[in-house]
């Protein structure tokens, strides 16, 4: 009997130590991810039509008076808004994807797969082709504002479906997919009636590009992230518990309806703002959270920050790739993320299919 | 003394006729395990889910002279725990994390239960259930039986006065059926009310103190197995010819012979 108790005790101690070590390991992983992001960010600034040495980039970042004016302009005025935008968009889309995957209980959910990007494109296309103007909105913001409104509305529509039709999460996912097709068809219709110039502009917009970044947009997206993040993080425990099943979570005292509503609201802000500024950037919201999950598991206290960082890292790397793939040509980043994301998407579907 | 009484409970799904109506039962006393049995669609799970607050219901659920049927989920979570039939399979959490998140789930808990306490309590529960070796196992790699035991741990970690289990042994082999039932019995022995939906009537007579037999949304019988189970009850509820036998141990055994034509 005594022996049994001693064994039990050490087994517990062992498990507690293992758990402690696991928590520690996760903090390290997050640290390493942050470091990788920073490195990729510096390379993103260094690379371009006129390459800079990483050393000059670092000096230029921390002590801009020590580099020549040309370098300073390249770093601070040309490349910095793009590079920061890449990081912020990666964060926003990846966190939105992570939240979506949890509340819809579906690893294939993301702003891209559920119609947020498609509706933003529709909004942008309407602004470009129909030339709508919204009172009080400056002309150079019309496209972004319209894209935002449409993207936001599409998530509100998902919310409405969930609330008023008492639809389960499976229905919501299918509804999101139906949205994608509907909006794509409407965009095609607009293509058909558009003038060649407008058509070119719409197509370029829908490719997704960082070339539309500027400091104002960077600021706005930063504000959105700063406002949303505390709410996301404070919901981390509830979201983790929700993974154990909706009924079970309700049994723990969670108002699942309210949790889902608040999360969809955060998702709509994050995804709509990001997509409005840079256009369709696919698969970040799918792949970012998935990589983070493989690295760190689904304790949302770690998974959310890790998803932010993987999203930022993938976007920075894609931004670098978009400059390097064809020398002298800056590819729209949406093409790069889609090309890299599709194989992963298929892999996920196959893996999910095997489990079902 | 603490006891639970159900008065006139009526519930169903929106837009459809009520599945259970006018259920009066009780008192259910601490330390007593009640099995809800009956044919498919008799309303067993509906009754359980209404009690847990997962389904809107009318009526009264009296606990210490207070109607707790309409409490918010948060308030209910302090008293009642509901264990669904299955734990999802594709979760990337390990057992101990799932237990900690069960404790830290609602905003109320986040203030009242500090993280080190939650962690200690999670390990305590696993230790009491003799499951410490599963603590660090990812949920998606547990066997069906192990998953069900961790699922039970999640349900009892808050030490609810009333534990509701929806088919806790479905899809389990004999060994794990017994293992889960033993844990349920130990929990009831701490002076808790346990109500569980069971399909297997012999499992119900073996492990519960009382049976609540439901038929077409109403109570067909309620009491100790040896007092209420007989051939005519089984014939009217399940539409089968059956023999009810008392074993030497005093346990009741049901042998189903054939369908009633």
Can you tell me about this structure?
The complex is a heterodimer of chains A (356) and B (261). Chain A is mainly α and 356 residues long. Chain A has a single domain (78-355), classed as ABC transporter involved in vitamin B12 uptake, BtuC (Orthogonal Bundle). Chain A contains 14 helices and no strands. Chain A has helices at 2-46, 54-62, 69-103, 116-130, 142-164, 169-193, 196-207, 215-234, 236-242, 246-251, 256-278, 284-296, 300-324, 333-355. In chain A, α1 crosses α3 and α4 crosses α11 (256-278). The model of chain A has no long low-confidence stretch (mean pLDDT 86). Chain B has 261 residues and is of the alpha/beta class. Chain B has two domains: 1-79 and 160-229, P-loop containing nucleotide triphosphate hydrolases (Rossmann fold); 91-157, no CATH class. Chain B has ten helices and twelve strands. Chain B has helices at residues 44-52, 73-77, 95-103, 107-112, 115-128, 144-156, 174-189, 201-207, 225-228, 231-238; strands at 4-11, 20-28, 33-37, 57-63, 66-67, 80-83, 162-166, 193-197, 210-215, 218-223, 240-246, 252-259. In chain B, the strands form three sheets. A six-stranded mixed sheet of chain B has the order 6-7-8-3-9-10, with helices on both faces. In chain B, strands 2-1-4-5 form a four-stranded antiparallel sheet. In chain B, α3 (95-103) packs across α5 (115-128) and α3 packs parallel to α6. The radius of gyration of chain B is 19 Å and the shape is globular. Classes of the chains: A mainly alpha (356), B alpha/beta (261). Chains A and B meet through α1, α9 and α10 of A and α2, β6, α3, α4 and α5 of B.
């Amino acid at each position: 009997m005594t022996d049994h108790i001693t064994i039990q005790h050490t087994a517990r101690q062992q498990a507690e130590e293992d758990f402690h070590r696991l928590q520690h390991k996760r903090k390290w992983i997050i640290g390493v991810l942050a470091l990788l992001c920073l490195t990729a960010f510096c390379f993103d600034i260094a690379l371009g039509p006129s390459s800079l040495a990483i050393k000059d980039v670092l000096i230029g970042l921390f002590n801009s008076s020590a580099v020549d004016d040309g370098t300073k302009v390249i770093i601070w005025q040309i490349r910095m808004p793009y590079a920061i935008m890449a990081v912020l968009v990666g964060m926003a889309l990846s966190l939105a994807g992570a939240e979506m995957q949890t509340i819809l209980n579906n690893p294939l959910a993301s702003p891209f797969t559920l119609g947020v990007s498609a509706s933003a494109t529709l909004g942008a296309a309407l602004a470009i082709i129909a030339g709508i103007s919204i009172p009080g909105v400056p002309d150079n913001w019309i496209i972004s504002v319209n894209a935002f409104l449409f993207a936001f509305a599409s998530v509100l529509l998902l919310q409405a479906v969930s609330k008023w039709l008492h639809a389960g999460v499976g229905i919501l996912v299918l509804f999101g997919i139906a949205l994608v097709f509907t909006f794509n068809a409407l965009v095609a219709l607009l293509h058909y009636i558009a003038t060649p110039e407008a058509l070119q502009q719409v197509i370029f917009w829908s490719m997704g590009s960082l070339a539309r970044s500027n400091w104002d947009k960077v600021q706005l997206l930063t504000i959105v992230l700063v406002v949303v993040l505390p709410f996301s993080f404070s919901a981390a425990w509830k979201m983790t518990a929700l993974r154990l099943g909706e009924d079970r979570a309700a049994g723990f005292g969670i108002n699942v309806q309210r949790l889902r509503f608040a999360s969809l609201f955060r998702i709509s802000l994050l995804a709509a703002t990001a997509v409005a500024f840079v256009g369709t950037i696919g698969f970040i919201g799918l792949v970012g959270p998935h990589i983070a999950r493989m690295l760190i598991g689904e304790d949302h206290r770690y998974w959310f920050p890790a998803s932010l960082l993987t999203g930022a890292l993938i976007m920075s790397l894609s931004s670098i790739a978009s400059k390097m793939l064809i020398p002298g040509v800056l590819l729209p980043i949406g093409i790069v993320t889609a090309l890299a994301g599709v194989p992963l998407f298929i892999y996920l579907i196959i893996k999910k299919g095997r489990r079902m | 003394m603490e006891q639970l009484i159900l008065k006139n409970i009526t519930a169903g799904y929106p837009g459809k006729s009520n599945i259970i109506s006018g259920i009066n039962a009780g008192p259910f006393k601490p330390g007593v395990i009640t099995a809800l049995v009956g044919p498919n669609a008799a309303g067993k799970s509906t009754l359980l889910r209404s009690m847990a607050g997962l389904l809107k219901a009318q009526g009264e659920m009296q606990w210490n002279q207070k109607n707790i049927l309409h409490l918010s989920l948060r308030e209910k979570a302090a008293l009642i725990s509901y264990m669904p039939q299955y734990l999802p399979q594709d979760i990337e959490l390990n057992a101990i994390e799932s237990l900690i998140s069960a404790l830290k789930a609602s905003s109320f808990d986040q203030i009242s239960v500090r993280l080190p306490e939650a962690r200690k309590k999670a390990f305590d529960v696993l230790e009491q259930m003799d499951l410490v070796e599963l603590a660090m196992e990812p949920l998606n790699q547990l066997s069906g039986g192990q998953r069900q035991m961790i699922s039970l741990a999640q349900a009892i970690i808050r030490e609810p006065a009333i534990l509701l289990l929806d088919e806790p042994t479905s899809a389990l082999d004999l060994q794990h059926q017994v293992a889960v039932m033993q844990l349920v019995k130990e929990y009831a022995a701490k002076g808790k009310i346990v109500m569980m939906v069971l399909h297997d009537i012999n499992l119900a007579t073996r492990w519960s103190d009382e049976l609540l037999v439901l038929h077409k949304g109403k109570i067909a019988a309620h009491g100790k197995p040896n007092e209420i189970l007989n051939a005519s009850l089984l014939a009217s509820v399940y539409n089968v010819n059956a023999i009810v036998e008392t074993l030497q141990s005093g346990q009741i055994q049901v042998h189903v012979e054939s369908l009633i034509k």
